[in-house]
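Re: the 210-residue chain
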Amino acid sequence: MTRQPTAAQRRVIEAADPVTGRLRGTEAQLAALVKRGLAFRHPRPPHDHFLTPAGHRIREAEPEPPAPEPRSADGVFAARVGGEEDSAQAGAGGAARLREVRSAWQGLLELRRMTNPGGGTDRPCGWERAHLVRAAALALEAAGHPPAGPRGAGYRVRATPQPEAVAVYDEDTAALAGLAATLERAGWQAGEYTEPRTRVRYVLASPRRA
């Protein structure tokens, strides 16, 4: 079964020549479409890329509606990513927050079941890939890890320049192994790294595809 393209790949597909199916994109994008069976590279120079029949079907299909976001029982929820970025959504704490987080996590698992091929809940779904920082933060908070306040220990989830990857920091570097293990159990690939210039340790995590 052909895997569905990412949002960026779908844009390349939709921009294909309407008659010939000729594609324009980066080498990485075109190679990824070939790997998924949605494009092929012409054997003769200039070796352009074209949509396969499966690629044409993707382009001609009706766009999928956006997936609903995981919500708490009261319908309003925002994952705490740690640090000052949480100031606008400090909201409830204690038992009320625990209930919100538990409800949102169960909603996310149900979203995985509804949208992942085969109904698998052991790997992230499309919503998580489109909201990497919030998805990783929800997995951490749902597992009981404390988010950082404006100052002090606790996790901080931040976006990175890498596609489909987030960085997770904690002033207590001994906590990084536990954060990585939690994300692994939640369906992410995670490992500890050191920033070359600052020597700060962090966890780099990305959603697992299979």
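The helical segments are 7-14, 27-35, 53-60, 94-115, 126-130, 132-142, 176-185.
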